[in-house]
Amino acid sequence: MHGRRRQAAKEATVDEKEQNRQRVEKYCALNDLVMQNKAQGVYTRETLEATQRLLELNTELHTVWNYRREIFANLPEWQDDEQRQAMLEKELAFLLEIILKNIKSYWMWYHRVWALRSLPTPAWKGELALVAKLLSYDARNYHGWDYRRFVVARMKESLDTDTQRDDVDASEFAFTTDQINKDCANHSAWHNRSKLLPAIMQKAGGALEQQEVLKREFGLILNAIYTDPDDQNGWLYYDWLLDVQEDECEKQKLLCDKVAAIRELLDLEEDSKRPMVELVETLVALEKIAPHLVDDEHKKECLATLERLEQIDTYHVGRYRDMSKSLSKRWGL
């Protein structure tokens, strides 16, 4: 853990070494048994149970996960919807137990997607609530967020009306707001929000309503960059917001608002590196699309900011000098 001094490993006792040897021996014997059954094409309840015991010991055996799916598909009960439903509900419960032990396992999340797709009658609302609970243990977990998008997409497919599907998008958008307010460095939440915003904008309707949506997004970004000016997530989302703007006037407004917000932030933390870099890059971007909005004083401000960055961020001094040289030549300053 961060901030804790590393403790020297203790020498295992004779009894502990013997226990470890026995565990390794049992694990190897079980692994050999499963691999032998796989090679022989054995698809029985007993082999299914053996794969479960092995996966409880090691969740990263993708070959065993593949074999487990083959066993399911070859069991006679698989052909009956009611029995398949019962088997897969039990499988989901098993997966929940071991996901909590290793929430970052790619293979387990993939297997859970397969189980949900194979269920005759999946409970999407319950699954969405479950993945929200899982994300409470590891809010930035990439696999969990990717799985959540899968669940939401399937849930929307199962709904009858556009209004219901719009309500799901709105609920997911609110979920990302809640997650970002809890942790503005949650990159996965920002990414998911970027996937949802186009639908939210379209639903907003007219230009005034869309401007209100953008205003709220700007407020969320401001909260993030004021909380941690050097965290990249709020800045990256702002850049994405600018990139997807098709209206030049709206893009100019967003750039001007960004400049104003950065200046206000630098009044509080004058030597904060990321805002200083963002100030230069934003003024340069604004000058490209609206030259009349960036005068010589703004350009001198950019060059002065780069000079200050050379002093406080010596690790990137070469980059700042190159930027300063390029801008000085371009602007004739």
Structure, described:
The structure is a single chain. With 333 residues, the chain is mainly alpha-helical. It is 77% helix and 0% strand. It contains 15 helices and no strands. The chain has helices at residues 14-40, 45-57, 62-74, 81-99, 106-118, 124-137, 142-158, 162-182, 187-204, 207-227, 232-243, 248-268, 273-289, 296-312, 317-331. Helix 2 packs antiparallel against helix 3 (62-74), helix 4 packs antiparallel against helix 5 and helix 7 packs antiparallel against helix 8.
Mean pLDDT over the full residue set: 91
Give the oligomeric state of the chains in this entry, treating copies of one chain as homo and distinct chains as hetero: single chain
Number of strands: 0
Largest sheet: none
| Share in β-strands | under 5%
Topology:
Elements (H helix, E strand, L loop, with lengths): L13 H27 L4 H13 L4 H13 L6 H19 L6 H13 L5 H14 L4 H17 L3 H21 L4 H18 L2 H21 L4 H12 L4 H21 L4 H17 L6 H17 L4 H15 L2
Helix pairs in contact: 1-2, 2-3, 4-5, 6-7, 7-8, 8-9, 9-10, 9-11, 10-11, 12-13, 13-14, 14-15
Keywords:
mainly alpha; 333 residues; 0% strand; elongated
TL;DR?
The protein is an all-alpha fold and 333 residues long.
